[in-house]
Design brief:
Length: about 260
């Protein structure tokens, strides 16, 4: 399949203070590096969104969104098809929002407002009621839990090697000690790299990777049993328990809510 170039949204001539965008993007779509004078929230109602900015790769499943402040250069690559939702916020209203790119947890209020506006094909709220709803989205984002990245990258060669191997085989069960031996460092050194570069343990990073792969597999219509087996779980119940810890829902509940199945 040929790579599809995504249309860059031009908001520079919009009257403001908000602009909402809704699109269905195919797998293997890309947006070249660009920036806006407005800040914007990028959300995948279905699928997993990947955005790159300032040397940071941000991946977000449907419970999360990627916030890009004004003037920050960013690009996008989609491995799978997504239902895309975005709200652009003029600069003056971005003061209360994060000053650096990050992923934010998206709650049911924001999801409901975005779904309502998308259903009505509403791009520029004009009525007092719709403007109030748009301001509620901004208020919710200002209070939403933030993290630098849902699945952060590494910098040190040893940890990069480990993460690359896990990306290729997320079902690999090797322990931290085994990986340390594989890349010729001590277990303590590798653990320190994880905390300093990832902000989490290797086990947590691997679980997040498995969760993202599971989301993509659910979107593709695979069975829970097959997904769990492919990700290295001995039983479907063990996979379901991991998924529920990450998503707050079972795989089938998640599929119904976020995958439209």
């Amino acid at each position: 399949m040929a790579t599809q170039q995504l249309r860059i949204q031009d908001v520079e001539g919009k009257p403001g203070p908000f602009y909402f965008r809704y699109d269905e993007f195919d797998a293997d779509s890309v947006a070249a590096a660009h920036s806006h004078s407005w800040g914007h929230l990028n959300y995948a109602a279905h699928g997993t969104l990947q955005m790159d900015t300032e040397g940071l790769r941000m991946l977000s499943p449907p419970q999360y969104a990627v916030w890009i402040p004004p003037d920050v250069v960013h690009s996008c690559h989609l491995r799978h098809a997504i239902a895309y939702r975005s709200i652009y916020v003029e600069r003056a209203l971005c003061a209360a929002l994060p000053a650096t790119p990050c992923t934010v947890r998206v709650g049911p209020i924001v999801r409901s407002i975005l779904a309502d506006f998308a259903a009505r094909a509403l791009h520029e709220p004009r009525t007092e009621a719709d403007l109030r709803l748009a301001h509620v989205v901004v208020d919710q984002l200002a209070q939403a839990p933030q993290q630098r990245c849902y699945l952060p990258d590494a910098q040190s060669p040893a940890l990069v090697s480990v993460l690359d191997a896990l990306q290729a085989a997320p079902g690999d069960h090797r322990s931290l000690a085994d990986w340390a031996q594989q890349v010729h460092v001590t277990e303590r050194t590798l653990a320190r790299h994880c905390q300093r570069e990832l902000g989490m343990s290797l086990g947590e990073w691997r679980q997040r990777l498995r969760f993202l792969r599971a989301v993509d597999a659910l979107e593709a219509g695979q069975t829970v049993q097959q997904i769990g087996f492919d990700l290295g779980y001995g039983t479907a119940s063990a996979f379901i328990a991991m998924f529920q810890r990450e998503a707050g829902a079972t795989p089938e509940q998640y599929r119904k809510e976020f995958c439209g199945m």
